[in-house]
Design a protein that fits this description.
It is a single chain. By secondary structure, the protein is α/β, with parallel strands linked by helices. It folds into two domains: about 65-250, 3-Layer(aba) Sandwich (Rossmann fold), CATH 3.40.50; about 300-400, no CATH class. The chain has 14 helices and eleven strands. It has helices at about 20-45, 65-75, 85-90, 110-120, 130-135, 160-165, 225-235, 250, 265-285, 300-315, 320-340, 345-355, 360-370, 375-400; strands spanning about 75-80, 95-100, 120-125, 140, 150-155, 165-170, 175, 185-190, 195-200, 205-210, 240-245. Strands 1, 2, 3, 4, 7, 8, 9, 10 and 11 form a nine-stranded mixed beta sheet that branches. Helix 4 packs parallel to helix 5. The longest helix is centred in the first third of the chain and has 26 residues, at about 20-45. The radius of gyration is 43 Å and the shape is elongated.
Length: about 400
C-alpha cells in the first residue's frame, strides 16, 4: 500500500522573496505617482501671483512702479493706500479721481466695496473674482475664455484707452457679460460674449473691470500697446488713488474669518482639553521603577513555544496548519525512536511503528496520514491519539 506523505516543511535552502524587495517596489511605485502628480499640477495650474503683483511701489517685473512713475511725470497726482482708512483720509474729489482697486488677498467685504464706489466716480478693478465681481459689476461673471500664457488682443470696442492702444498683449482673465444688464460694454474679446475688459455703470460710479492686469506690470508694460492702454485708462483724471488692501483689512472688514466664526466658549474648551491630555500623558507615562536587565540569550521552554503557536493557529482558524505541524512533529519523533534513516518515507515509518507496537498498519497510517478532523474537538482527540502512539512506541522500545 502506498501512502501519501504529509506536506513537507519548507526547505530552508529554497530562495524566498525578500520582503525588502516588496517594500522598495511599493516605494518606487509611490514615487512615480507623486512625480506624475507634480508634473500634471505644474503643467495645468494657473500662474501664481507674485507677492508684489501690481504693487505701485515695487520695481520687480510683477510690480507697477514704472507705470506710476510715468503717470506722475504726466502730471497725475498718484496716491497709494493699503487700508481703507488711508483711502478715507486722502479726502479726494470724487469727480476728479480714478480709484484703482486690486484686492490681492481677497480681504474686502461687500460693505467695504460699496463704500469704495462712493469715494470716486471712476473705479478700475483689477482681476476681480466671484462675489467681488458681482459687487462691482452685477450680472458679470467669470468666463471660460482667456489665455493664461498671454495673447495679443486687438481693439474691438469704443473705450478711448483701448482705441488709442490699438492692441494689448497679456494673459487674460475672461468675463462673461451675457447675463449683465444694459449699459455694459466689453473690450478685447476672448470668446462669445466674453471679454478681458468690461465697463459698466452703477448708481455710484463708472466701473471698469480689467482682466489683463499683467499689462500694467513692469515686465509687460512695453509689450504691444500695453503702455498706451494703461496710461490712458488711469490718467484721465487729475488724481489717481491706487488701493491695494493689506491683510490688516481682515480685522476691519465684514467678511467672515476663522476668529469671527469661532464660538466664545470654544477656545477655553480647547485649552481645557489640552490641559487634560497633558495631565493624562504625565499620569500614564510615569516611570514604574528601574529597568530590569535580563541576560541574553533567553531560553524559552518548548511547551511555551508550542502553546503560543497553538493559540495563533486557533485565533486564525488554521486547523490544517495545526494538523500538519502535529503530524510532522510526531512522524519525526517516531522515526527517531524506531531507528529508521532520516530520509525514510512515511510508509517506512508507518511500517516500523506497526511492527514494534504490534498495532494494525492501517490504523497507524490512518492516524499519521489519512484522518482529517472536521472540528477542533476532533483535532484535540487526534493530538491525544498521537501522544498515546508515541508513549506506546516508547514502552515497546524499552521492553525490547
Amino acid at each position: 500500500m502506498t501512502l501519501e506523505p504529509p506536506p513537507a516543511p519548507p526547505d530552508p535552502g529554497v530562495e524566498r522573496r525578500s520582503p525588502v524587495r516588496g517594500i522598495l517596489l511599493g516605494v518606487a511605485i509611490g514615487l512615480v505617482f507623486v512625480l506624475v502628480a507634480i508634473v500634471v499640477y505644474a503643467v495645468t495650474r494657473t500662474p501664481q501671483r507674485e507677492p508684489d503683483y501690481l504693487s505701485p511701489t515695487s520695481g520687480s517685473p510683477a510690480g507697477s512702479r514704472a507705470l506710476v512713475a510715468v503717470l506722475r511725470d504726466q502730471g497725475v497726482d498718484v496716491r497709494t493706500a493699503s487700508t481703507l482708512d488711508e483711502v478715507r483720509d486722502l479726502d479726494v474729489d470724487p469727480a476728479r479721481t480714478t480709484l484703482v482697486v486690486f484686492d490681492y488677498y481677497f480681504v474686502l467685504g461687500p460693505t467695504q466695496r460699496r463704500e469704495l464706489l462712493r469715494i470716486a466716480d471712476r473705479v478700475v478693478v483689477m482681476e476681480p473674482w466671484d462675489d467681488e465681481l458681482s459687487d462691482y459689476a452685477p450680472g458679470v461673471v467669470l468666463g471660460e475664455g482667456g489665455d493664461i500664457l498671454g495673447s495679443r488682443y486687438e481693439t474691438d470696442c469704443g473705450l478711448p484707452a483701448a482705441v488709442k492702444a490699438e492692441a494689448v498683449e497679456a494673459w487674460a482673465t475672461s468675463y462673461d457679460v451675457s447675463g449683465a444688464e444694459a449699459g455694459v460694454e466689453g473690450c478685447f474679446a476672448t470668446g462669445e460674449d466674453e471679454f478681458a475688459v468690461v465697463t459698466t455703470r452703477t448708481r455710484q460710479a463708472e466701473v471698469t473691470i480689467v482682466g489683463i492686469a499683467s499689462a500694467f506690470t513692469n515686465g509687460d508694460i512695453l509689450d504691444a500697446g500695453n503702455a498706451a492702454f494703461a496710461l490712458n485708462l488711469l490718467g484721465e483724471r487729475e488724481t489717481l488713488v491706487w488701493y491695494r488692501p493689506s491683510l490688516a483689512e481682515l480685522e476691519a472688514g465684514d467678511i467672515p474669518t476663522a476668529v469671527s466664526r469661532t464660538a466664545p466658549w470654544l477656545t477655553p474648551l480647547i485649552i481645557l482639553a489640552l490641559a487634560a491630555g497633558l495631565a493624562a500623558a504625565i499620569w500614564r507615562g510615569r516611570r514604574l521603577g528601574p529597568l530590569v536587565t535580563e541576560r541574553l540569550p533567553v531560553v524559552v521552554r518548548s511547551n511555551e513555544t508550542m502553546e503560543g503557536r497553538a493559540r495563533l493557529y486557533e485565533r486564525a482558524g488554521a486547523r490544517g496548519h495545526a494538523l500538519d505541524s502535529l503530524r510532522i512533529g510526531a512522524t519525526s519523533r517516531l522515526a527517531t525512536r524506531c531507528g529508521v534513516p532520516r530520509g525514510a518515507s512515511v510508509d517506512e515509518v508507518v511500517t516500523a511503528v506497526a511492527a514494534i507496537t504490534g498495532r494494525d498498519r492501517d490504523a497507524v497510517a490512518d492516524l499519521l496520514v489519512r484522518r482529517v478532523p472536521a472540528t477542533d474537538a476532533e483535532l484535540v482527540a487526534l493530538s491525544d491519539d498521537l501522544l498515546e502512539l508515541e508513549r506506546d512506541l516508547a514502552r515497546h522500545a524499552r521492553g525490547r
